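Structure request: Sulfotransferase, Actinomadura chokoriensis.
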Amino acid sequence: MVRVLYVTGWCRSGTTLLGNLLGEVPGAVHVGELRYLWRNGVLGRGTNTLCGCGQDIPSCPLWKAVIGRLAGDDPAWHAERAVRLQRTALRTRHTGRRLAEARRVRAPHPAARDLAGLYAAIADETAAGLIVDTGKFPAEAAALCGAPGVDARVLHVVRDPRATAESWRRAKEYIPAMGPARSTAYWTGFNLASERVARAFPDRCLRLRYEDFVASPRAELARVMEHAGLAGDPPADAGGSARLGVNHTVTGNPDRLRQGPVRIRDDDAWVRAQPASARAVATVLAAPLLARYGYPLRPAPARTHEET
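Returned structure:
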């Protein structure tokens, strides 16, 4: 049985750093956004094609071995099939169908079996007791809850939608910018779909607010580790300092390539820098969920562990 912690929620919510920190715990491996192994790593269609270790994904010893186990001598054919299954069965709109399969109401989709096989190959190559996948697609989390041979736990990470909208206002080296209306629409859709997974499998799901994580990183890491069944000491001290080693993340924030000492702190510059019009759009569109997640209508800079 392969143990997986799958992280859902919307992008720009600190999940790359969270995953890399969990990957520092003995027995755990963070694979980044595993969904993009085939499209970016094998087919080369994305712009984010490096493994977290710095090598091209097909050249990384870990991913070369995993791809060889699953795809044999024709990785391109296998990758095309995997991407096609993702497109037809593992988008956010498919969350309900995957949940029905996980509850044995419908026959399982081949995409769920393929996911299970991929995790099994990673577990065999790494000998990891826990695989952390920060893919963030609720349909994948739903599929994993019923996938054969997988013991799945889900972590729903939420960040203030005004903060994610401000982050999306600027392009990153591997992905273009996005306006506040579109970003907040995605934020709403991904979070509502994540809630559907939690309602269906409450014992498997835990919610974590980004703001709570950066305010009390050690305590929140301990809570996540307990949820995932991961033993050991949280990989950050009381002041939020940590050290990152080499990882094998498939894709994610470019910061995943960073190694050495890091300080976990809130990025709240958006509170002062965000244009009023963009904030108004994000606030209006996200208003039905703000109170549910503990966010005020008028955000203010957050207190961090340095101020408590």
